[in-house]
Structures are given as structure tokens and as C-alpha cells.
């Protein structure tokens, strides 16, 4: 089979000589034949500036593909692109290790409950990569950026239905620029409320539609009520019914999963215009589980977070966080926290954001040099801003922390716990309309200003 005409695939972008068609290397694209060898041969044959093209179709791969050549693009042809289907569980479907590599117009599918730390897309030490118009379904991770990957752009990605720690996982490296991405995980029976959270699965128990249990490490949501059986059910592929006595469940997510997880030795992650809605422990998390250098500098602009169970954002290690024009809404559990800083060392700015998570808006349990300014925080039955004892060097200024006609009132606007907090300003906030009180200042320090709050 000869080279596919440019007019049919990549018109106006490259000449025929710049395109390697995987079907010329023996790929079939029927969803059944193992095409991994043929696609790998095409990737190995490509040189700088060439595109390895997958004509429209479904390409099964039983072995992981590796892109080692610098400046090579792997691209789906036609308007809908092409699909890569993992043929085995735990497969790293495509791994990028070079510089200036590109993935475009591709769909990835891993139709297994993945329990090993694999990913549909892995960047391992890659640099200046560009990923655009990608859909990834399944895998332990949807996308994994590791090994010192740097200065890479991720644009218009849709990652969903993972079974492990995160849709988008980062450990090590610097300079990931993530924009216009959907990192969602929808609840099978609609977003639950706190009363639906039933904790660990129990035998011979009545469950109603919408209830959520944790069983074998996964959130399962009831789609048809009844009485459970005697053996704890395990996760199934998303969308498949799980029969348990007379109850029907569906997998909602791993119970310790995040839309976006930043781990040890990671520096500068920038997210713009992204959506992290659904059945996660938290929309995003910043951690240092590998005892390396704690992450630094996470920037979020116009990011939407909602329907997570415990936190909008869980920041337990690191320094440097800046959120602007973001929204955190409708968390499931009570208690819960829109933004939770506990172990984070500080240098935080949260400004011009809208938070109505349901219990506590922002919990500051650690760090210094924190600025909370120009936000609207409502519908927090506990506190809009809660500061733990001893936390110092912070500013809460110019926020609307009273009530909302749409989402409801806060309990208390700002509460500083009794203790040695010092060097802070709580000024010029609107606190009228709270159901419990305005400002509760338990800090014993003398270097502070609490004024102008009305």
C-alpha cells in the first residue's frame, strides 16, 4: 500500500515524503490484529521532522510503543483520528523519551481494570513535547510525566476512566503547561450527597440508588437498590454492572484517586482552562510521597473543580501555589475542604476565585506568606476561611465571605484558632449574612490587624 495522499490526512501540513504510513509497515487497524510491531517499525524508521501516521481505524497493541527519535510526530489521520487499544492489562501504550516529539489526534483505550502503575501515555525524560487533541480512557494513569520530563505542552486532552492514582500524574521534571484539558470522572448514578457515603461495603445490607461504598479500594456507586450479598465486590470496567445480591453497582473510581497529582521533585506546573469534576478523593493534590524535593510552583487559572469527595485541592507538601479565577464547588463529604493546606510550607495566593464547596472553603493548617484576596466564598456550613493555631504571616483581605443568594450562607467567615498566630491582616472583608458569626480571632500575637470587616 502506497503513501496516503496528503489531501486525505494532513493537507497543508507536510509533503508525502514527510509522512510514514503505518499500513506500509504492515499495520491493519481492524481492532483485532496486533499492530504493535508494525507501528514500532514505523516509529524506528522515522527521522527528525517526519510524521508517523495512523489512518482512521482501531489499532490493537499487545506491546508498548516507544518513541525515541527526536522531532517525530505520531498522529491519527482523518477528522476523527485513530484509536490505539491496549491488548493487555498494565501496558504502557506509548512512551515518549526524546525531544520535541508530538502526539496528535489520537484516542487511547485500555479496556481492563489496571492495577499496576502503567499509563496509556508516558513521558519519561522527554523534553519540549507537544500533545494535542488526545482522548485517553482507562489505564492505571491516563497520562504520566516522569523521569525529568521538561517544558512540555498538553493541549485539549480528555483523560477519563482511570483505575489508579490519577488521570494526570507528575513526578519529577519541570515546566508542564496544561491547557484546555478535561480530567473528569463522572459518577455513575449522579453526584451523591453526604448521606449517600456509606463507608466500607457491608454484607447483607440495604443500599439505595446513589449510595457509595468503598470495596477493595474502589468507590462503587449503587445504580439499582437492594440488599448486598456476602462477598465484597471488586471493581469492573467502567460502565459494566456489578451484581451483588440484589444490589447493582458500577465502578466510580479508585478511592484514592485525583484528577491531577503532582508528586516529588516536580517544579512549575501551569494549568489553564481545565476541568477536574467528578468521583475523586480530591480534584488535585500536591504531595511528596517519595521523600524527594517537595513540589514547587503550581499555577492554576480558570480551573473548575467539583463533585469530589473530600477536597477540591489537597496540598500536603511543597511551596508556591497560585490560583486565579478558579471555581471549587459541591464537594460530597461533610466535613470537606475546598482548598486544604496541611504540610504545604507556604507562598500561596488564592485570588478572584469562587468557592462554594459545602463545609470549609479554605483550610490553612500550615505555611506562611499566604494571601487570600478578592474571592467569593459561600455555602460553607463550617467556615469560609479556617486558620489553624500557630499559623502566621497571612492576609485575608477584600473577600466576600457572607452569603450568596444562589448557594447560601457560610457558618463563620474567618476563624483563627486559639494559639500563637501572629503577623497577619484580616481586613476589608464582607462578612454580613453568616449563620454563625463574622470574624473569630483566637490568635494571641500582637502584630496583626483585624479591621474593616462588615
Task: Describe the protein's architecture and organization.
The protein is mainly beta. The protein has two helices and 45 strands. The strands form six sheets. The protein has an 18-stranded parallel β-sheet that branches. Strands 5-8-10-12-14-23-26-29-32-35-38-42-44 form a 13-stranded parallel β-sheet. A hairpin with a 3-residue loop joins β40 and β41 (408-409). The radius of gyration is 24 Å and the shape is globular. Mean pLDDT is 95; it is low at 1-13.
Offer a few descriptive terms:
454 residues; mainly beta; 18-stranded parallel beta sheet; 13-stranded parallel beta sheet; disordered N terminus
List the helices and strands and how they pair.
Elements: H1 6-9, E1 19-21, E2 30-34, H2 36-45, E3 51-54, E4 58-61, E5 65-67, E6 73-76, E7 82-86, E8 94-96, E9 102-110, E10 119-124, E11 130-138, E12 141-146, E13 150-160, E14 166-170, E15 173-179, E16 197-200, E17 206-207, E18 212-215, E19 218-224, E20 226-227, E21 242-244, E22 247-254, E23 258-262, E24 266-272, E25 275-277, E26 282-286, E27 296-301, E28 304-306, E29 311-315, E30 319-324, E31 327-329, E32 337-341, E33 346-351, E34 354-356, E35 360-364, E36 368-373, E37 376-377, E38 383-387, E39 394-397, E40 403-404, E41 408-409, E42 412-419, E43 424-427, E44 437-443, E45 448-451
Parallel strand pairs: 1-3, 2-4, 3-6, 4-7, 5-8, 6-9, 7-9, 8-10, 9-11, 10-12, 11-13, 12-14, 13-15, 14-23, 15-24, 16-18, 23-26, 24-27, 25-28, 26-29, 27-30, 28-31, 29-32, 30-33, 31-34, 32-35, 33-36, 34-37, 35-38, 36-39, 38-42, 39-43, 42-44, 43-45
Antiparallel strand pairs: 17-20, 18-19, 19-22, 21-22, 40-41
Amino acid at each position: 500500500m502506497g503513501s496516503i495522499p496528503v489531501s486525505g490526512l494532513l493537507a497543508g501540513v507536510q509533503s508525502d515524503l514527510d509522512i510514514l504510513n503505518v499500513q506500509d509497515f504492515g499495520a491493519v487497524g481492524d481492532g483485532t490484529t496486533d499492530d504493535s510491531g508494525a507501528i514500532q517499525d514505523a516509529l524506528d524508521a522515522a527521522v527528525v521532522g517526519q510524521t508517523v501516521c495512523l489512518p482512521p481505524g482501531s489499532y490493537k497493541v499487545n506491546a508498548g510503543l516507544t518513541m525515541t527519535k527526536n522531532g517525530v510526530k505520531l498522529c491519527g489521520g482523518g477528522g476523527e483520528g485513530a484509536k490505539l487499544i491496549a491488548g493487555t492489562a498494565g501496558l504502557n501504550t506509548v512512551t515518549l523519551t526524546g525531544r520535541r516529539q508530538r502526539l496528535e489526534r489520537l484516542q487511547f483505550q485500555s479496556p481492563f481494570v489496571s492495577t499496576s502503575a502503567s499509563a496509556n501515555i508516558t513521558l519519561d525524560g522527554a523534553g519540549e513535547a507537544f500533545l494535542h487533541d488526545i482522548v485517553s480512557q482507562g489505564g492505571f494513569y491516563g497520562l504520566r510525566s516522569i523521569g525529568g520530563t521538561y517544558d512540555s505542552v498538553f493541549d485539549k486532552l480528555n483523560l477519563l476512566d482511570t483505575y489508579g492514582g490519577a488521570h494526570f500524574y507528575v513526578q519529577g521534571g519541570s515546566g508542564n503547561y496544561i491547557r484546555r484539558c478535561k480530567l473528569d470522572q463522572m459518577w455513575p448514578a449522579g453526584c451523591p450527597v453526604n448521606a449517600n457515603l456509606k463507608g466500607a461495603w457491608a454484607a447483607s445490607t440495604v443500599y439505595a440508588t446513589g449510595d457509595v461504598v468503598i470495596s477493595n479500594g474502589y468507590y462503587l456507586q449503587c445504580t439499582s437498590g437492594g440488599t448486598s450479598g456476602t462477598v465484597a465486590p471488586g471493581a469492573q470496567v467502567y460502565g459494566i454492572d456489578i451484581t451483588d445480591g440484589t444490589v447493582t453497582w458500577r465502578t466510580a473510581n479508585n478511592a484514592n484517586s485525583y484528577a491531577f497529582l503532582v508528586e516529588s521533585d516536580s517544579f512549575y506546573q501551569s494549568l489553564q482552562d481545565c476541568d477536574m469534576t467528578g468521583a475523586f478523593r480530591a480534584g488535585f493534590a500536591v504531595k511528596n510521597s517519595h521523600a524527594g524535593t517537595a513540589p514547587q510552583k503550581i499555577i492554576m487559572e480558570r480551573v473548575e473543580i467539583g463533585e469530589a469527595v473530600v477536597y477540591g485541592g489537597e496540598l500536603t507538601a511543597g511551596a508556591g501555589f497560585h490560583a486565579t479565577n478558579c471555581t471549587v464547588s459541591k464537594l460530597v463529604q461533610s466535613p470537606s475542604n475546598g482548598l486544604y493546606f496541611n504540610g504545604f510550607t507556604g507562598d500561596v495566593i488564592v485570588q478572584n476565585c469562587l468557592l462554594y464547596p459545602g463545609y470549609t472553603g479554605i483550610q490553612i493548617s500550615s505555611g506562611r506568606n499566604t494571601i487570600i484576596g478578592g474571592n467569593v466564598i459561600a455555602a460553607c456550613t463550617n467556615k469560609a476561611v479556617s486558620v489553624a493555631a500557630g499559623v502566621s504571616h497571612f492576609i485575608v483581605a477584600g473577600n466576600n465571605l457572607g452569603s450568596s443568594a444562589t448557594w447560601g450562607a457560610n457558618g463563620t467567615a474567618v476563624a483563627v484558632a486559639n494559639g500563637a498566630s501572629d503577623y497577619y491582616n484580616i481586613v476589608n472583608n464582607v462578612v454580613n449574612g453568616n449563620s454563625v458569626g463574622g470574624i473569630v480571632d483566637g490568635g494571641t500575637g500582637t502584630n496583626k490587624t483585624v479591621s474593616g470587616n462588615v
